[in-house]
Amino acid sequence: MTGISDIIPQIIINSLIAGSVYSIIVLGYNLIFTTARFFDVGVGGMTVVGGYSVFFLLNHSELGLIPSILIALIFTGLVGYKINKLIYKRLRKQKATSLVMLIASLGVLTVIQAIIAMIFTSQFQSLGYVSTSYEIKGAAITDLQIWTIVLGILLPLVTILFLKFTPFGKAVKAVSDDEEVAKIVGINTEKIIGAIFFLGSAIAALCGIMVGLDTGMEPTIGFGLLLYAIIASIIGGIGNIVGGILGAYFLGFIENFGILYIGSEWKVAIAYTLLILFLLFRPQGILKR
Amino acid sequence: MKKVIWVVVAVLVIWGIVAATKNSNKVKETGPIKIGFIAPLTGDAAAYGEVVKNGTMLAEKEINARGGINGRPVEVIYDDGKCNGKDATSATQKLVNVEKVKFLLVGECSGGLLAIASFLNQSKVLSLAAIATNPAVADAGDYIFRNAPNDNNRGTALANYAKQNYKKVAIMTEQTDYAQGLRTAFKTQAAANGLEVVADEEFTSDTKDYRSMITKVKATNPDVIFMNPQTGAAFVRLATQARELGLKQSLIGSEFNGPEVAAAGAIIEGTMISVAPGLTADGKGKAFAEAYKKEFGKEPAYAYYAGAAYDNLMLLADGIAKEGEDADEVRDFLYNLPSYTGTIGSYSFDEKGELVGINFVFQKFEGGKFVEVK
Fold first, then answer.
1. Does one domain contain both B264 and B161?
2. Which residue of B212, B220, B237 is in closest CB contact with A14?
3. Which of B242, B275, B308 is the last residue of a domain?
């Protein structure tokens, strides 16, 4: 008779998978937040742009999975870059507050979701990926999920190293510390921010693609993923990239173990309760900025 | 000058009111008969919402082709309920308050219908539902009729089937009215016939990652798993993730035999579901299936509900032709109807507006498609 202790390895795997999904999107979200200084809700829209681009390429071209993913990443990065140029840059020039930018990004998310629903219908679509299952210590995991975990850990690592040791990365840090001073020192802050939007959007797209391959695409999944990104970033410490990653995995574990000990229908409620607890008792998050 | 302006305004207002009331009286007698329609046209539930809409459109076309109702054309106003109470309510309010329909064709999910039921009864809008199966709809009110069977029967049938073939069942239910109603009916019968329910998990509609819930279910070692979501898409997701996590048990479920589910293939082999019977093999059912294929280029998925929607509009048209555009009179006409032969078979309504004469059947997924089981 399988008891609770036998399924702990599976719950751990489930937590790692969920944490990795959140980790990827919170990375994109935090990158944008640290430089552009507002809650870019449009990041949720980038996840579905990425996922549906892959869906489109797989169904309407001869390209294989990996080339489709690479093209989708670049395409979504460009979309994010363009949106920054058309909308956020102008608002920044007008010295708009971060609240105004948040609302604008909400508009971006809504429009993107609506356009995708118009083109692809709002019904659930499968990307047709057939996974192979493996077993580790009695727990099942698929090749796709292994990739998600690898990306969830490696991608932030690579990004952090990149930001720390390259001139570009140092410029990003300068902009995130103080945009005005960075300008004075001669850094082209608009160019840096534009590049970050490209990068952040592409990373968000990757999150959407992994989720799409695993469970399928719907225009509305972007909003759900975004909410997790916001919760993870607040729990981890706003503006702190490493904190965001820790927050993501922390959230993944609490959610899945919560299902085990409390009940499946409380899954989303647990995430929000965690957020409220952190806001009440440790608003600076796990890691300070 | 001010006095003159006030006089002009007063004249305009009075003239406007007179003109408006005069116009609406005229339109009432000779203009098109407006009938409202609500169903999920977007989202996962659109898999069946669209089909119900198509069935209705076919009926609308046929009625108008033969001259309408007593010479007046029928105009169905289609709106999207999105399978939730909030959107169904705003769509219905628009139909009743703005478009002023007196009759409503409902293809909306049980949850949506239950949310708008009291408003419809208060507004005395006669409503015919083609697809809501939740038991609570029976008591939804005097003006609500349905030609979809009641889930109490389905829950009982599923629990009996499970008891005959298995000892322990695990249930996974979505938190919507339809799924919860079915779960309650199933559990009631399970308690009565001694079937052991080893797991009774629930999930919210916006969840797509069921893995930990499935893991919990796996730990209880069921013989069979009763998957109880709101849509076919969710059913496929549940089955896919369950197989990935190593659950090899057979599945039982309800309703979802559309192409989006059949496409899942091998992972749902052997699944037993309790569904509405479908169109009659000859007579009106056959004619409808052919007309549907001609008009929309493919056979109707969830054919019973497409046919039920078609029957609802046809029956409504008969009622209006006989009793006039009066919701109360047509309502009584429906109550007193001895029998109606439609695309789904012969049936009538009982004193609660419930369907009499047609019940659910079992289908099994074998070799890539759903086949009926006696």
1. yes
2. B212
3. B275
Q: Could you tell me the pLDDT band of residue A202, with boundaries at 50, 70 and 90? A: very high
Q: Is A18's CB within 8 Å of B206's CB?
A: no
Indicate the residue of A2, A17, A126 with minimum beta-carbon distance to B219.
Answer: A2
Looking at the predicted complex, does its ipTM rise above 0.85? no
Option in A17, A259, A265 nearest B175 (CB): A265
* Mean pLDDT in residue range A66-89: 94
Q: What is the CATH number of the domain that holds B267?
A: 3.40.50.2300
State the best of B167, B210, B211, B223 to mutate against chain A, taking most chain A CBs within 10 Å: B211
**CB < 8 Å to A211, chain B:** 208
Domain hosting residue B163, numbered range: 152-275
Mean pLDDT for B58-87 is 93
Query: Which chain A residue's Cα is nearest to B174?
Result: A265
**pLDDT, chain A, mean:** 90
Predicted TM-score (pTM) of the model is 0.82
Hey, of A264, A265, A266, A272, which one would you mutate to test binding to chain B, going by the most B CBs within 10 A of its CB?
Answer: A264
Phi-psi region of A182 (alpha: psi -120 to 50; beta: other; left: phi over 0): alpha
- The amino acid at residue B102 is K
Q: What is the pLDDT of residue A107?
A: 94
Residue B70: inside a domain, yes or no?
Answer: yes
Residues B69 and B87 in one domain: yes
A109-119 pLDDT, tens digit per residue, is 999 999 998 89
Return the domain boundaries, chain A. 24-226
- Do the Cβ atoms of B282 and B350 come closer than 8 Å? no
Tokens of B264: 């899942």
| Residues in B 155-174 with any Cβ partner in A closer than 8 A | 172
Domain count, chain B: 2
Confidence of residue B21 (pLDDT cuts 50, 70, 90): low
Same domain membership, residue B214 and residue B113? no
